Amino acid sequence: MFAKRIIPCLDCKDGRVVKGIRFINLRDAGDPGDLAEAYNREGADELVMLDISASREGRATLMETVNRVARKLFIPLTVGGGVRSLEDGRRLLSAGADKVALNTAAVETPEVLTELASLFGNQAVVVAIDARRIGNSKLETGKSKLENGKTKIENRNSGEASSRISNFDFRISDSSRWEVVTYGGTRPTGIDAQRWAKRIAELGAGEILLTSMDADGTQAGFDCELTATISRAVQIPVIASGGAGNLEHFAEVFVRGHADAALAASIFHYEQYTIRALKEYLRDHGVPVRLK
Amino acid sequence: MIALLDYGAGNVGSVLKAVRYLGYDAQPVDQPGPLEDAEKVILPGQGHFGAMMDRIKERKLLEPLRRRIAANKPYLGICLGLQALYEASDEAPEIAGLGFLRGRVTRFEGIDKVPQVGWNQLQVQRGDKLFQGIGEGSFVYYCHSYYGPVTEDTVAVTEYGQTYAAGIERGNIWAVQFHPEKSGEVGLKVLKNFLEL
Question: ipTM of the assembly?
Answer without folding.
Answer: 0.92
